[in-house]
């Protein structure tokens, strides 16, 4: 056992050198990386959170909440862009933390990111199942509810009787299908993602263009509803609470950084992909929020499908089906990107010896970390099929925000510790911009319930047990001569 400490850092030079080992195919350009970001950002957020935040917190001023959320993400996104260009490897926040705070914190954040990626994918898969069942009903095809719901959940049949769920087969199906595509090749998966993103953007833009002609300006008054007397319920405090909620609609741009090692020109492609996807999505969010609150009084938007409710006002029944197709495309790309990102993080952790090295194996002809991808896909499919998940948003969000804080801190640290290293892209206004990113993230974490914090601590405690039971003794950095399998 090496006498190196738990906070031993991996040097920036070593990380960049290792990028050439077990090389992943460089197949992604700036357009595909931007589409990857849009694919993960525009999903459940634009189809659900817009209405929820407007109805309960901000009213029509939800548009301002999206502006605040976009600005907050921009601070963090600029930090991601610098680190992704500086360290073009697949580990994302895990790798950045390894280069700053050291191995123990890198492992903690890698374990923490499972909450965002794997559990997030399971949750979205359950939502996908609901949308596909609804869409098929429009064509007279009914999936038996007991096979579209997890155990201990109940569904109401048309005659009013309740049926208990057995297994959510559609949720498991979409996860396994996308896993097979990801194993088959990143380039092919990127093509599918680009097509799905195109469909999703077309539907969202069609909603904006069609809906704006049916807007009732009276629905925007009062633009900022009076506060109810409770902090966070309308008024300016409600706008900020709404920003806390819709901020989570932006998470996913960080998954773009996991594609750095497969970017054709990461020094330019990564900043374009991260910041470009953020800018496009922020504009679309604001536009959709404006149209939907103009179509439907904000008090009536607290439903799972606020966009579909807005379509009902327009009165075009065919467009309702199109919206469901767009929602399915949106959710599909979110699952795809989350599965992709999680496997790349596992790939990097396994290369460092903190997980069995089998998960860093790259397929000789496909050029993908197929064993890591298969493991993630099977676990996510099982969770999605058997777990009665309503929304794991709070757990997914606290894990993401924790990662955001460390990424912003890593930029400040590396500017001092590795000042002489060439930076293809530099975050402007350091240390002000990273500090603002950290403050926004910490503020939003404070808004989360105590129970969410407790679940996070329990999850991290399990991770620490695994690290000391396996990772520490197999660490390539701490034990250069140790076998890693």
Automatic annotation (TrEMBL):
Bilayer-spanning residue ranges: 28-49, 61-83, 95-114, 121-141, 161-183, 195-216, 236-260, 272-296, 316-341, 374-392, 398-415, 427-447, 453-470
Keyword Signal: no
Localisation: Membrane
Family matches, as Pfam families: AA_permease_2 (PF13520)
Membrane topology recorded in Swiss-Prot or TrEMBL: Multi-pass membrane protein
Keywords: Membrane, Transmembrane, Transmembrane helix, Transport
PANTHER family in UniProt: CATIONIC AMINO ACID TRANSPORTER 4, INNER MEMBRANE TRANSPORTER YGJI-RELATED
Protein name: Amino acid permease
